[in-house]
Amino acid sequence: MGRTIALAGATGLVGREILRGLVADPSVSAIHVLARRAFEAPLKTISHVVDFRALPALPRIDEVYLGLGTTIKVAGSQEAFRAVDFDANLAVAKAALAAGARRAGLVSAMGASAKSGIFYSRVKGELEDALAALAFEGLVIARPSMLAGDRESLGQPVRRGEGIALTISRVLGPLIPRNYRSVAVANVAKALLTRVPLARGREIVLSGEMQ
Fold first, then answer.
1. Bridge partners of 4?
2. Got the DSSP string for 3-22?
3. To the nearest 10°, the Cα dihedral for 31, 32, 36, 40?
4. Low-confidence winner among 170-174, 192-196, 200-204 (lowest mean pLDDT)
5. What would the DSSP string read from start to end of 64-86?
6. Domain ranges of the chain
7. Is the pLDDT of residue 141 over 80?
8. Distance from C-alpha of 139 to C-alpha of 134, rounded to nearest angstrom
């Protein structure tokens, strides 16, 4: 039997690319997509409409990919942001672990640290630490810089900071340290898809490694 995957955040920039990669992977037999709204499921994909505050028991899972994320502006408050970026991702991880998952991949962010003075980065870091404390055999954390991708095609608001960073990257190019250049969403997805199936312990992949 092939690998069975759980994916949260499939409608996001990186999550969409992760889903594409999983669908194309012949070693994957089933992909369970967890979302708050109905999802048009491609081949091998089973859509589950869930409340992340009260997840049901999941079917048998080998790996889980966590790509849920928002911004404080979109969420409306720091509390609402944390409910998505921390609480929902952690809930999915725990549910997947209970369903047999041995490995996990997380879309985090550059600067993530539980000790950060920046709320966004602190929440990302706290999630990384919470996942590391779970009993996964392998955990891969991708920390991309500003993402280069088409949010408009997903019906998402364009993030001003990402647009500015992408423009600067195009103009200054090699003058910018690799970890701070904009990174293509497909490269972030590829970093997780290639590392998670073989992961042992915790591995952090910085943005420059995904260029």
1. 30
2. EEEEEE-TTSHHHHHHHHHH
3. 50
4. 170-174
5. EEE-----HHHHSSHHHHHIIII
6. 3-205
7. yes
8. 9
Structure token digits, residue 70 = 């928002």
Q: Is the Cβ–Cβ distance between 33 and 7 less than 8 Å? A: yes
The three-state secondary structure class of 156 is coil
Across residues 114-120, what is the average pLDDT?
97
Closest CA to 124 of 176, 164, 69, 173: 69
Residues 104, 136: contact at Cβ < 8 Å? Answer: yes
pLDDT attached to residue 151: 46
Average pLDDT over residues 129-146: 96
Cβ-in-10-Å burial (0-12, 13-18, 19+) of 150 comes to: exposed
Distances 138 to 15, 108, 151, 173, 194 between C-alpha atoms, Å: 19, 16, 30, 34, 13
Distance CA 150, CA 211 (A): 17
Q: Report the C-alpha gap between 69 and 159 in whole angstroms.
A: 13
Least confident of 29-38, 61-70, 151-160, 199-208: 151-160
Average pLDDT of the residues in 75-102 = 97
How many Å apart are CA 30 and CA 87, to the nearest integer? 25
User: Crossing angle for the helix pair 89-98 and 119-132, nearest 10 degrees?
Assistant: 10
Burial class of residue 42 (count of CB atoms within 10 Å of its CB; 0-12, 13-18, 19+): middle
Four-way CATH pick for 3-205: 3.40.50.720, 1.20.1250.20, 3.30.70.1170, 3.40.50.970: 3.40.50.720
